[in-house]
Automatic annotation (TrEMBL):
Protein name stated in the entry: Mannitol-1-phosphate 5-dehydrogenase
One GO term of the biological process aspect: mannitol metabolic process
Keyword Oxidoreductase among record annotations: yes
Superkingdom as given in the UniProt entry: Bacteria
Taxonomic placement: Bacteria, Bacillati, Actinomycetota, Actinomycetes, Actinomycetales
Alphabetically ordered keywords of this record: NAD, Oxidoreductase
Domain Mannitol dehydrogenase N-terminal: residue ranges: 22-280
E.C. no: 1.1.1.17
Length: 490
């Protein structure tokens, strides 16, 4: 194992030993390393130009924090290469563009030394704590929008607030220490795919604090900023082939590189009372109101991924580009976007939404990144309520069309049974399977009656009827024929 990915011409041009932690990031996975850490790396490279204000940029180094047992792998991989790693952009024409990213300069696996994490989070030099802990990681009930106070992590951290185990427990304890020491609170920046990710992070942190210290909860509510943002870059999971390819193409030995598409976007609410890096210098759009951008991205891109994932898997496909390149699946996704999703969006400053949709299809058909449908659709239980069902609800309220959305729910429920239309197995999250099985056994609304996901949609006569019609049509016609008919229906 080499100490750093070994291509000096790709390596960071700045003085890495001089980096100090300004950002603590919880949940260092592929996406954080392809996106936020890449922007900070750009900033550090930018600042290292002759005469550039490098010293201020190097204050924004990232210390990664892992909370889950699986994060020991990231701890070890990064530690073995001085916390650098290779980021490879895979272009649709097969070109690869690699850079060695150096902005993450340290990583703490919290269970190894919780105090080290808390001390760092409470230090005045830490001005941002950012998160990519997945949608499910926020512990929010989709139906009510409330924090789930009954989960074991929340209960533990409320009973032992000085010995936290969850992201929110750590943030609360660090805030308590900062407040006691008179240190300005850091900004909490969620970078997960959630509508109102800052607002949701605020709910999680304030609710966790309220379970043990209501007064602290009030202080956090009043003093801590939780900017919302829209984040975008398709980042598949790294495969053993990616690692081998890097070795054979560039001679780089990297324990855990990242591959992603060339496209990247970050639209960030400018609300950082404790200060922030000059992100606008490296392509981040700093705005006052993120809502139109985030609705556009989640309800078009991520909803399309759900469409590609659930239909594609039912048809026995494996990859995102395979589904996006299939004429029937692509036509269905376009029809859903154009008929049901686009009419419910807000105008987005400077963006032509029809062009945005065209660009999405160019991105989805990028075969080089080999993104799997399993990654796109495995988390249907968190993806569908955030990316697809809000469009269905808005259309129900506005008297708009819901048939394509309801058909996707039906396709999803059939996929959850774990077998595609060829009789081959589909990997699925097991917790929904009993409901899909009850649906198969004749309890036709069992799947949509799951309030955690569907809220009260099963009680909506129009949704229920349309869903049941689509379920019946799918069973009798099969996915491809039903998709074609739906697209032709106009
Ligand atoms: N991959 C993408 O294309 C992409 C693009 C935009 C946004 N995102 C957002 O980033 C998130 C992570 O994606 P990724 O590709 O990096 O996934 P990943 O599986 O590579 O990494 C996820 C990280 O989150 C941590 N984590 C998960 N649940 C947690 C919890 N409850 N508490 C603390 N840590 C937790 C994991 O330990 C891991 O470090 C997504 O869920 C999404 O919200 C991803
Ligand atoms: O990561 P999830 O589960 O929120 O959603 C799966 C994909 O839609 C998502 O990761 C996209 O690739 C990403 O949001 C692109 O920016």
């Amino acid at each position: 194992m080499t100490a750093t990915p070994n291509r000096s011409d790709l390596a960071p041009s700045y003085d890495r030993p001089a980096i100090t932690t300004g950002i603590v990031h919880i949940g260092v996975g592929g996406f954080h390393r392809a996106h936020q850490a890449m922007y900070v790396d750009r900033l550090m490279r930018d600042g290292s130009a002759p005469g550039g204000p490098q010293e201020t940029r190097l204050d924004w180094g990232i210390c990664g924090v892992g909370l889950l047992p699986g994060d020991t792998r990231m701890r070890d991989a990064l530690a073995s290469q001085d916390h650098t790693y290779t980021l490879t952009l895979k272009h649709p024409d097969g070109r690869h563009e690699s850079t060695v990213i150096g902005s993450i300069h340290d990583f703490l696996f919290a269970p190894d030394d919780p105090e080290a994490v808390l001390s760092l989070m409470a230090a005045p030099t830490t001005r941002i704590v950012s998160l990519t802990v997945t949608e499910g990681g926020y512990n929010i009930d989709d139906a009510t929008g409330a924090f789930r106070t009954e989960t074991p992590g929340a209960v533990h951290d409320a009973a032992h607030p000085r010995e936290p185990t969850t992201a929110f427990g750590y943030i609360v304890e660090a805030m308590r220490r900062r407040r006691a020491a008179g240190i300005t609170p850091f900004t909490v920046m969620s970078c997960d795919n959630l509508p109102g990710n800052g607002r949701i992070a605020r709910t999680a942190v304030v609710s966790q604090a309220a379970m043990s210290d209501p007064e602290l909860a009030g202080w956090i509510e009043e003093h801590v900023a939780f900017p919302n943002c829209m984040v975008d870059r398709i980042t598949p999971q790294t495969t053993p082939e990616d690692i081998a390819e890097l070795r054979s193409d560039l001679g780089i030995q990297d324990a855990w590189p990242v591959v992603c598409e060339p496209f990247t976007q970050w639209v960030l609410e400018d609300d950082f009372p404790a200060g922030r890096p000059p992100f606008e210098r490296v392509g981040v759009q700093m705005v006052e109101d993120v809502v139109p951008y985030e609705l556009m991205k989640l309800r078009l891109l991520n909803a399309s991924h759900q469409g590609l994932g659930h239909w594609g898997r039912l048809l026995g496909m494996t990859y995102g580009h395979e589904a996006a390149g299939d004429a029937d699946v692509a036509a269905w996704v376009r029809a859903f976007l154009e008929r049901e999703a686009l009419p419910r969006l807000l105008p987005v400053p400077g963006i032509d939404l029809a062009e945005y949709v065209d660009t999405l299809f160019e991105r989805f058909t990028n075969a080089s990144i080999a993104d799997t449908l399993e990654r796109l659709a495995f988390f249907g239980p968190s993806g569908m309520p955030k990316f697809v069902l809000p469009t269905v609800r808005d259309n129900l309220a506005a008297g708009g069309p819901i048939r394509l959305g309801a058909a996707l729910c039906a396709a999803w429920s059939l996929g959850v049974l774990g077998t595609d239309e060829n009789g081959d197995p589909i990997p699925v999250a097991d917790d929904l399977r009993p409901l899909a099985e009850r649906q198969e056994a004749g309890d036709e609304t069992a799947f949509i009656a799951n309030e955690e996901i569907f809220g009260d949609l099963a009680e909506n006569e129009r949704f229920r009827t349309t869903y049941l019609e689509e379920l019946a049509a799918l069973r009798s016609q099969g996915a491809r024929a039903r998709m074609r008919e739906l697209v032709a229906e106009a």
